[in-house]
C-alpha cells in the first residue's frame, strides 16, 4: 500500500472512530455538565488546569521525539519505545505526586484538593498513552488506537451514568474520567506487546539520546502549555468557580477538536521526517501544502459555523445553564482554527530539528500570555481570557511560520483559503436566513452547502475523493 493510500486509509479510520468517540465523549460531557452545574464544572476545570501545570514537567516532548526516532530504520524500535515509556513513567510519578500536596497551599475548596488525588491516575495514564501512540503512528496503524479509545469511552459513559444514578458527585465523575485514560493505556500496551517487546528499560545510553533530542521540544511544549492552560488556572484564582465553569465548558470542546487535529498530524510527522531524512524537499513541500489545504478546508467553516451555531451547540451539549458559553465558544473556535494551522508548522519545525529556534518565541509568548491573562481576566472575566487565547495562538502561528520559512524558504500558497472563505460565506446564507432550524438540520444544511460550493469552486480534487472512497470500500 502506498504512503498516500495508508494516510487516506488511516484518516478514514480516524474519522469514523473519532466520530464515534466524540459522540460518546460529548454525550458524557452533556450528562456531566447537567449533573455538576456551573460551579461543579468550575471545580472540574480547576482540577484539570492545576494538574496540567504539573503535566508540563512530565511532557518532555516524548511523543514527537519517539515518533522521529522509531521512524529511523537504523534505530531499535522496541528499545527506544521501552526506554521512552520508562522515562515518562518516572517523570509522571515524580512530578504529579507533588500536585495534590502543593494544591493544599492554594485557596481552593477541599473538594478540589481531594479531587486532584483521584485525577492524578488519569494524568499518569494519559502521559504514558501519548508516548505509546508513537508506535501506532509510525506504523500508520491507528485502528488499534481508535478501538482502545472507543472501548474506554463506552466504559466512561456507563460509569458516568452510574455516578449520576447513585449521586456519587464530583469524585465519581473524576473517577470515571481517570478510568477512561487508564483503560486506553492498558489496551494499547496489550496491542503493542503482540508486535514488539515492551518492558521497563534503564539503558542510559538510550536515555541520553532521547533526552538530548527532546529537551528543546520539551521546553517549547512547557512554555506552550503555560499559555494554553494559564487562562483557566489564573481564572480559578481570581474569579468565582461559576465563571470558571462557564469558560471551562466550551474549552473542553476546544480540547476535543485540538486532539483530533494532533492525531491527524501525528500521521503526517513520520512522512515529514522521512522526506527530510532522504533530503526530498520537493516531496516535503507537497506534503506541507496538501496538509495545509486540508486543514484550511476544515478550519474556515468551523469558525464561520460557530458564529451561528455556538449558542445552540452549548445548550445542546451542556444545557441551558451554559447558554452564555455559546458566545464564548465563538471566540475559542477562532483560536482552535489558528491552532490547527500552527500545529502543522510546529510539526514541520520539529521534523527539521529546528525546535530550539522556537524556544525564545514560546518564552516571549508565555510571559505575554500570563501578564495578559491576569490583566484581562481580572477586568473582563472569560471574555478577556478567550480573546487573549486568540492573540497568543496567533502569535505562535506567525513565529512557527517564520521559523519554517527561514529553513525551507517555503510557505504554503493561500489559494485554497479564498475558496474556503467564499464557500463559508455561501454556507452562512441558509444559517442566517433560517435561524430556527433544528441544530442537526442546520449542521447538515451548512455542511452540504459548504462542500458543494467548494467543489464547484474546484476547492478539492474529485479524483482524490474517489480514490479515498474506493480504498475505504
**Helix-strand topology string:** HHHHHHHHHHHHHHH
Sheet/helix structural class: mainly alpha
Number of strands: 0
SS strand fraction:
under 5%
Q: Mean pLDDT, rounded to whole units?
A: 84
Main β-sheet, in a few words?
none
Shape: globular
Number of helices: 15
Rg over alpha carbons:
22 Å
Distance between the termini: 15 Å
Count of distinct structural domains? 2
Looking at this protein, list some descriptive labels.
473 residues; 2 domains; single chain; 15 helices; mainly alpha
Descriptive account of the structure:
The chain has 473 residues and is mostly helical. It has two domains: 3-413, no CATH class; 414-473, no CATH class. It is built from 15 helices and no strands. The longest helix is centred in the N-terminal third of the chain and has 57 residues, at 3-59.
Report a brief summary of the structure.
Helix content is 85%, strand content 0%. It is an all-alpha fold.
Q: Secondary-structure map with pairings?
A:
Blueprint: H1 3-59, H2 62-70, H3 77-96, H4 98-103, H5 110-138, H6 143-165, H7 169-193, H8 204-238, H9 241-277, H10 281-318, H11 325-351, H12 359-408, H13 415-433, H14 439-456, H15 462-472
Helix pairs in contact: 1-3, 1-5, 1-6, 1-7, 1-8, 1-9, 1-15, 2-3, 2-5, 2-8, 3-5, 5-7, 6-7, 8-12, 9-10, 9-11, 10-11, 10-13, 10-14, 11-12, 13-14
Amino acid at each position: 500500500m502506498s504512503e498516500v493510500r495508508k494516510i487516506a486509509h488511516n484518516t478514514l479510520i480516524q474519522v469514523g472512530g473519532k466520530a464515534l468517540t466524540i459522540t460518546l465523549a460529548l454525550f458524557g460531557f452533556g450528562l456531566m455538565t447537567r449533573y455538576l452545574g456551573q460551579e461543579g464544572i468550575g471545580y472540574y476545570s480547576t482540577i484539570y488546569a492545576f494538574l496540567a501545570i504539573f503535566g508540563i514537567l512530565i511532557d518532555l516532548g516524548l511523543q514527537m521525539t519517539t515518533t522521529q526516532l522509531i521512524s529511523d530504520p537504523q534505530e531499535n524500535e522496541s528499545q527506544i519505545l521501552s526506554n521512552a515509556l520508562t522515562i515518562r513513567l518516572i517523570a509522571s510519578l515524580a512530578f504529579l505526586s507533588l500536585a495534590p500536596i502543593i494544591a493544599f497551599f492554594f485557596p481552593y475548596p477541599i473538594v478540589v484538593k481531594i479531587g486532584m488525588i483521584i485525577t492524578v491516575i488519569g494524568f499518569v495514564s494519559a502521559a504514558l498513552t501519548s508516548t505509546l501512540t508513537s508506535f501506532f503512528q509510525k506504523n500508520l496503524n491507528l485502528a488499534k488506537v481508535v478501538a482502545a479509545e472507543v472501548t474506554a469511552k463506552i466504559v466512561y459513559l456507563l460509569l458516568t451514568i452510574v455516578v449520576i444514578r447513585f449521586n456519587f458527585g464530583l469524585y465519581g465523575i473524576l473517577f470515571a474520567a481517570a478510568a477512561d485514560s487508564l483503560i486506553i493505556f492498558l489496551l494499547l500496551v496489550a496491542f503493542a506487546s503482540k508486535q514488539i517487546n515492551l518492558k521497563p528499560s534503564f539503558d542510559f545510553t538510550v536515555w541520553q539520546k532521547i533526552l538530548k533530542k527532546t529537551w528543546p521540544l520539551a521546553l517549547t511544549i512547557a512554555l506552550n502549555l503555560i499559555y494554553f492552560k494559564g487562562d483557566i488556572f489564573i481564572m480559578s484564582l481570581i474569579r468565582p468557580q461559576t465563571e470558571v465553569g462557564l469558560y471551562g465548558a466550551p474549552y473542553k470542546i476546544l480540547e476535543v477538536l485540538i486532539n483530533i487535529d494532533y492525531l491527524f498530524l501525528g500521521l503526517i510527522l513520520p512522512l515529514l521526517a522521512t522526506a527530510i531524512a532522504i533530503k526530498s524537499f520537493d516531496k516535503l513541500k507537497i506534503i506541507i501544502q496538501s496538509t495545509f489545504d486540508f486543514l484550511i478546508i476544515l478550519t474556515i467553516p468551523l469558525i464561520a459555523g460557530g458564529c451561528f451555531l455556538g449558542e445552540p451547540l452549548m445548550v445542546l451539549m451542556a444545557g441551558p445553564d451554559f447558554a452564555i458559553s455559546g458566545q464564548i465558544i465563538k471566540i475559542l473556535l477562532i483560536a482552535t482554527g489558528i491552532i490547527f494551522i500552527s500545529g502543522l508548522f510546529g510539526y514541520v519545525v520539529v521534523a527539521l530539528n529546528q525546535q530550539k529556534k522556537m524556544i525564545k518565541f514560546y518564552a516571549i509568548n508565555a510571559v505575554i500570555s500570563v501578564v495578559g491573562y491576569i490583566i484581562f481576566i481580572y477586568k473582563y472575566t472569560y471574555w478577556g481570557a478567550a480573546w487573549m487565547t486568540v492573540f497568543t495562538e496567533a502569535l505562535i502561528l506567525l513565529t512557527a511560520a517564520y521559523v519554517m520559512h527561514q529553513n525551507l524558504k517555503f510557505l504554503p500558497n493561500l489559494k485554497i483559503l479564498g475558496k474556503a472563505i467564499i464557500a463559508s460565506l455561501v454556507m452562512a446564507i441558509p444559517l442566517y436566513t433560517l435561524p430556527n432550524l433544528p441544530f442537526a438540520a442546520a449542521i447538515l444544511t451548512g455542511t452540504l452547502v459548504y462542500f458543494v460550493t467548494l467543489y464547484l469552486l474546484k476547492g478539492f480534487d474529485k479524483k482524490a475523493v474517489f480514490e479515498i472512497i474506493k480504498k475505504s470500500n
